[in-house]
Write a structure and sequence with these properties.
Shape: globular
Strand content: under 5%
CATH superfamily: YgfB uncharacterised protein family PF03695
Number of strands: 2
Radius of gyration: 18 Å
Structural class: mainly alpha
Largest sheet: 2 strands, antiparallel
Length: 221
């Protein structure tokens, strides 16, 4: 697998693949994927790749019917490469960490769109136990949730332009602060319940997580 940041065409390919195979339950674009991966890397305990790859698509029942193995493998490899690049920036080069926000042109101006990234971050938060944050760090998470949960939309509608810009500028520092906190205060990983081997999935069948491995060598373990 390659290392380093993805180039523009690779990011566009990931974006197109998410849009093609996605549903209302899944991550829909590369900005949301970037936010989700950032939260997974910042979590108080590790989430297994088989679990978060399922979460990208919204569950085992929503895993794509890939056109071929090459498409599936390229998606997984590019996602892991991008995740490794985020991890390196968070841990070793925080001054180079930059959320992959979207953009939109409106009346000749390029606007920054943060909602998808923040929704993805909160999707990643839901995969781990983030309880027990001290007040200062909870405020950091709230700064991301402000743009990443639907119940806050009405509140954002009442922001002045200055307040809205200020809220956007708090997102990246909040993500770095949360990464630093959980790195210094990790929790024990939640023990997974054994996966039942019923008639629906054979031991030698492809794993429903989309990893490309046989079920017995992946999520059954």
């Amino acid at each position: 697998m390659k290392t380093g940041p993805l180039n523009e065409s690779e990011l566009e390919w990931l974006d197109d693949t998410l849009a093609t195979h996605g549903s209302e339950k899944s991550v829909l674009d590369v900005s949301e994927l970037d936010g989700m991966l950032t939260a997974i890397l910042s979590a108080p305990h590790e989430t297994e790749p088989a679990d978060w790859l399922l979460a990208v698509w919204g569950g085992a029942e929503a895993v794509p019917r890939w056109r071929n193995e090459r498409e599936r493998d390229r998606f997984i490899n590019l996602t892991l490469q991008h995740m490794n690049d985020i991890a390196e920036r968070l841990s070793d080069y925080p001054d180079q960490f930059e959320p992959l926000f979207g953009t939109r042109e409106e009346e000749g101006q390029i606007l920054t769109i943060v909602e998808e990234w923040c929704f993805g971050y909160m999707r990643g938060v839901a995969l781990a136990d983030w309880s027990g944050l001290p007040d200062a760090k909870q405020q950091a998470l709230d700064a991301i949730a402000l743009h990443g949960t639907e119940e806050n939309f009405a509140r954002l509608d009442n922001f002045t332009a200055e307040e809205f810009i200020d809220s956007i500028e708090k997102i990246a520092p909040a993500a770095l602060s949360l990464f630093d906190y959980w790195t210094a205060h990790p929790k024990a990983a939640v023990m997974k319940q054994p996966v039942r081997n019923d008639a629906k999935i054979g031991r030698n069948d492809p794993c429903p997580c989309g990893s490309g491995k046989k079920y017995k060598n992946c999520c059954q373990q």
